[in-house]
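Notes from hallway chat w/ T.B., transcribed later so I don't forget. T.B. wanted the structure written out for a chain they're using in a teaching module, and asked if we could keep both sequence and structure tokens in one place. Agreed to drop them here.
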Amino acid sequence: MAVTHIDKFVGMLLDLPVDSGVFYAFGPVTPGARQRAANARHPKISMKELAGEALFPPWSDNLEEISPWGTCRAPNCRAGEIWWQTFVQDDGTDAIEAGSCDYCGTWTVKCRDCGEEEYAFSTDVTCMTCGAGYELTSSDYQSNNWDGVVQTSKGHD
């Protein structure tokens, strides 16, 4: 299987109302095809190399991989994956993890007090589990490109 096979599969998925697909390869797969499948985001591609295996693998083994649910927890986002970044704090305290969804663009902050992940629809984020507060900072607030996250209040002990 070559890159062109993955490209044709992606094209077919784009014509359907789906967010992901499983590509079964029963023969040799080129490194380029593996890379193209691994880097596919919308639609997300899971590749199964089954050279020498049964023709019909059980679907239940792959349901988690082809599930349309990504890691983004924002309402109305079905397939997004959070691209996490680490923001080092100027005051020397622990870094804060935050990232944006590759599907809907919503930002999520991982609370450093309790570990809960909270999505942000404004610059202020409050952890619903422990009450810690965070602020997304940017030199250009109209772009939605945040260049920092600071903790504004501690969570409950």
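Follow-up for T.B.: The mean pLDDT is 81. Might be a good example for the class.
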